[in-house]
Amino acid sequence: MKKAVVIIVVILCIIAIGVCSAILYSKSQQDNSQFLGTDVINSEKNETGTIVAEMPGVQIFKGSDRPIAVMIDNNIDAQPQAGLNDAYMVYEIIVEGGESRLMALFKGVSLDKIGPVRSSRHYFLDYALENDAIYVHYGWSPQAQSDISTLGVNNINGISETTKEFWRVKDKKSPHNVATSTEKILEIANRKGYRTTSSKDSVLNYVTDEVNLDKGQIAEDITIPYSQSNTVEWKYNSETKRYTRYSKGKKQTDWTTGEDVTAKNIIVEFIANSTLNDGENKGRQTMNTVGTKDGYYITNGKAIKITCEKVTRSSQTVYKDENGNEIDVNDGNTFVQICPINANVKIEGAK
Questions:
Q1: pTM over 0.70
Q2: What is the per-residue pLDDT across 159-176, written as a single tens digit (0 to 9) for each?
Q3: Which segments of 219-349 are extended strands (E)?
């Protein structure tokens, strides 16, 4: 009888230990969950079987794919363009004749059509270099051709490639009708021996927490005149918290999807431009991108004044607020509007 009682007591002790262990393990898991907070998006087990949480990070600029910078035509006959909404950054800078040209930067995306692709201008190289990008264009100015060689830019000139890699479409007129794809660009890059991965940090200091410029001025309607015939407008949508783009009085849409071209962030930078005296009388422009320039950072319906500091042609531009601190930028695509220094830029409330 005593032996049976001892056995029962031992069994009860084992059960009690098991219950306590289960309770302690459950509490530990709850504590870990609280520690990780709402930032945990999913989890997986590592080689030892331990659960490892995956934390969310910046989505617009991630992975090890090397950026691709593509020169995009912005003539009225070139619109609509393909791929602008898929670029993490788009630079717009003045060229000859009061026109502007775009350089769209892509990272880790696959696009069947990008374009219309247009020729290079030498000052765009400064921004391709600071993004560590493979530079894609269709033709070049003499200054761009020289600088590409001098600066050792990994470039792809579509004129030198086959019509399977850079093709002309029938729904636009030449010279505004050349298209390409990320697949073809990467095929050419691999054939040329260009590096297709990059560990370089983003030019912009993207953050995952929403950036609201509480002390900034209202910025719901932005007008940026590049010339008398070329004005860019951005109109804010408070529901989507994005800006819709207009060029030359026309809302811009995507060539492939038909969707409106929009941006989460807009950076305006003022740089003096002048006409090159190159003997060809084509009105080509030049500018000095190096130094400290004035500008604005615009997001979520507000704008603040900033400075844009670039030490060398290839170094990354640092965007700072009026207190000298590098600005945080919302996790989303950005248009960098590099406009003439005397441009009458207007930043206003909704009209």
A1: yes
A2: 999 999 999 999 999 999
A3: 221-227, 230-237, 242-247, 250-251, 262-263, 265-270, 273-275, 285-287, 291-299, 302-310, 318-320, 329-330, 334-339, 346-348
